[in-house]
């Protein structure tokens, strides 16, 4: 049974009918539970102190078997009133150190991610600008080719019109020449 301070405060013992007080067996059983839970807490406290001391000295944490035995009587922890405060301060210091390390690591990762993102953005921008220059150059060449073809077509149109005009005018002259004497001859008869 995991014993809490509230369990001790709220524990109700049954009254015995034929004598004053509580049932001695029930009180003894409960006190045995208190002693067992208290000893577990002392063992755990000693083990944590050993681990903290080993951590602060830079060594590996001592195994639980090497931790000081905590089978001391119930009055022993009361004599060490300053020790729990020191252990608590050490644990808080350790927690603060770990927190600071995690925060520093997080900031480092954040900065690395930002730098990577900026580098990737610069690369994408440079690639896009290069592609834009290549596409502009290709379109400029296409435009020059099309303008050359348009110029050729204009020249062909002028030449064709000139040739067509010359041909039509030649045909009209031929008609005028042929039509003039025969037209006069047919009207004379």
The backbone outline, from C-alpha atoms, is: rod-shaped
Q: How would you characterize the largest beta sheet?
A: none
Helix content: over 70%
Spans of 5+ residues with little confidence (pLDDT < 50)? 61-81
N-to-C order of helices and strands:
HHHH
* Strand elements, count: 0
Distance between the termini: 149 Å
Instruction: Tell me what portion of residues adopts beta-strand conformation.
Output: under 5%
Structural class, by secondary structure, is mainly alpha
Q: What is the count of helical runs?
A: 4
Over the alpha carbons, how many angstroms does the gyration radius reach? 54 Å
Look at the structure and give the mean pLDDT: 79
Structure description:
Helices cover 80% and strands 0% of the residues. The chain is mostly helical. It has a domain at 5-80. The chain is rod-shaped, with a radius of gyration of 54 Å. The termini are far apart.
Blueprint of the fold:
Blueprint: H1 5-10, H2 24-57, H3 76-79, H4 82-188
Give a short summary of the structure:
This protein has 189 residues and is mostly helical. Helices cover 80% and strands 0% of the residues.
Spell out the key features of this protein.
80% helix; mainly alpha; 4 helices; 189 residues; single chain
């Amino acid at each position: 049974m995991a014993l809490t301070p509230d369990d001790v405060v709220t524990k109700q013992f049954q009254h015995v009918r034929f004598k004053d007080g509580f049932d001695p067996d029930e009180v003894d059983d409960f006190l045995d539970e208190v002693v067992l839970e208290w000893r577990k807490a002392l063992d755990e406290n000693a083990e944590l102190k050993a681990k903290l001391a080993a951590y602060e000295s830079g060594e590996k944490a001592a195994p639980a078997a090497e931790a000081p035995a905590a089978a001391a009587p119930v009055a022993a922890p009361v004599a060490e009133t300053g020790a729990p405060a020191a252990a608590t301060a050490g644990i808080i210091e350790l927690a603060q150190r770990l927190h600071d390390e995690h925060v520093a690591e997080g900031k480092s990762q954040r900065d690395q991610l930002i730098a990577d993102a900026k580098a990737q953005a610069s690369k994408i921008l440079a690639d896009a600008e290069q592609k834009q220059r290549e596409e502009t150059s290709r379109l400029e060449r296409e435009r020059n080719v099309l303008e050359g073809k348009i110029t050729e077509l204009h020249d062909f149109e002028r030449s064709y019109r000139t040739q067509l005009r010359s041909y039509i005018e030649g045909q009209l002259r031929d008609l005028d020449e042929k039509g003039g004497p025969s037209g006069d001859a047919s009207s004379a008869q």
